[in-house]
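Structure ticket #2291
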Amino acid sequence: MKKNYLKWWLQNVVVLTCCGIASYFGVVKDIYQKDYSYLCFVIFGLYVCFSFINGWIAYSLDSGKQYNEKDLESSWFVSELCLSLGMIGTVVGFIGMLQGFSGNTEGAKALQKLLSDMSYGMSTALYTTLAGLIFGNLLKVQCFHLEKNIGRKKCQDTEIMEPKQVS
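Resolution: structure written out below.
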């Protein structure tokens, strides 16, 4: 039974469904317009690439094929990288938000522009943080399940190779 692969597949179907719903309601377009760092899309791209690698590991684990354990280590690293990129996007957004204070803030038009720039920077900060948290943690969940099942498989293989002593 391909239990690991089915778990991976189910998680990604749910993620793609949520992305489709977000696109339908205009969230993806809003992120594209307001995230001037484009780190949300970098984070999503990393998630997609390494999720496919995790899917291959899950498939290989279920079918008894060889897989590279370094790929799982890379997935762990990228899950942390997604969180870090989210935090970098937060800093970039705050810097963009605070740059509006450097200009002229007198008059109604200047204050209106200042508030607009602040909201633009704040939306970048929050969207990148959210993307980093969501996709980084989703990769961690995949890696955790795979690592747990790799450990089980190694224990089963060891038991098969070393028969129990009968007293």
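Closing remark: Residues 3-150 form one domain.
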